[in-house]
## 1
Amino acid sequence: MYIVNDMYNNKKTYTSKFTVCKEYTNEWHQPVRWIQFATTLLLFVAGTVPRLALSAEYFAEPYLEVQEIYDDNIRLTTQKHDSTYGTIIKPGINLGIRSQNTEVNLGVNLITEKYMRKNLDTDDQLLRFDALHRTERSKYAIEYEFSRDSSLRTEIEDTGRVSANTRRRKRSYVHPTWGYDITNETNIEFGMEYTDTQYPRKGNSGLRDSTVYGANAVFTKMWTPTLDYFVELYANEYNSVTGLNINLKYYGVNFGGTKTLSDTFSYTLSAGLQRTNSEAQVLTGGIVRSVGSSSNGFAFSAKVDKKFETTTVSALLQRNLQPTSRGNLNERDEFRVNVKQRLTEILEATLQTRVIQQSATTQTGSNDRVFYSVEPGITWKVTRDLDISGAYRYRNQKFDNASSSATSNLFMILFHYNVPRISVAR
């Protein structure tokens, strides 16, 4: 498929009907998606809430977090930078309804971040909704999330490169699933995903508006009372029409199993094959052309959870594919270890470690990186509703095409207060 653009005469020649459709239907297609989602959500709630009203618990859980931080390299950059102090205030509330077969949850977070350097200030919002309904053999579920946040947080996780000034991001995510128990030992589940990401004032930051569609099917079989195995098929498509178009398709199959050795020890292993197809427009000599590539890869995941008398340890090692905000599809290897140690009835120590190795499957060089962080902390439970936590975090990041690595040292103190739970049963 080729799209030729005469930059001087401002004329376009389309050689693909599919591309023409994507170019001219994007404006009206977006509202249609939201209408479809709103209709689905309305039907789900309308069908479940009347049954909930017969016998259910209604609850509200307000809370407030106040965090003071010092970071000597908040953007994790090798360029000249200043240290900064910041205050982060996070009021929120969780609302929910519970009955024997149905759960409905709604969470709202308002996050205000103020720093000594004003160009880092941001006001973020997060809305989360999920609902679950069970019948004798089926399980229906839906998740929805809407967020307005800043590239200061999202880009460190996504690409490791943060714009000189924070950029606003709007992200919507919906994930409906349906599971069915074929027998007492066999289950199948189907799911779909849709993510819409927009940067209203992206400027020349390189950030791209995008949509991601996904679908998967998982077959699970209980082999023994302590061993389950599963097979998963998945497919995803990423589209971005910011500037030059980018289309990424990645799909694959995973095989795995979960072994429960005891109530305190379990692990999950999986491995599979994945394939990527990419197609992007490139500008050469004033002419826009479409180029494509394909590749095959290997995916894996290993997760271990172990509980001791006063200690909890969880570890994860995985490789997966992840589209980024700049239009690349990255192969991401990640290793995590989290440890919690109860020191006394009111004191708990934690340690979080992460190592990420990331490489682009659709281009080379600029986004390949190694990142790691270590974060020890301690939490003091002052009362049943009030916690005070302190932590130190060290981060290190090295890009393949950079001569030096970026480091960051953060010190943090956090106050978390839970307003007493409000609950009404009918």
## 2
Amino acid sequence: MAITEQERQRRSEQARRMHREGKLGNAAAARNGAARSAEVRSARASSIARRLLEEHEDEVRKTLMDVLAKGSRSEKLKAVDLMVKAGLRGESVGLAEQRIEGEQRSREELIAAIMMKLQAPTPAAAIMRAELGTRGVVVDGTATEITP
């Protein structure tokens, strides 16, 4: 298929523009390839680490407890730091899973979930109820439509 001189010129100008914007050429290809390979490496490393921890869970627990009982002050601090970071990482994964679950819920299910959390006997829920109470809002499991 032969292209006209005008079409060739249009394509040439478009390629130059995309190259200037970094969307075409070696830099863009390298950026996209590096991002994809970094994601793959990260996922592979995470799955390997998770599998190793699962296989040696008892040994890891015993070692951490031994360090906490008999280790030097700096070793104890490092062990505690490791446990706290692992716990926080686990929480962030849990929150991400909850967010994904929330995106797949119906409106009624989301209202019910929010109501349960606001009525829970936790300090955070009590603070939220108190703040909503100062605004005249009662947590009753209903939602009103907000129109723009």
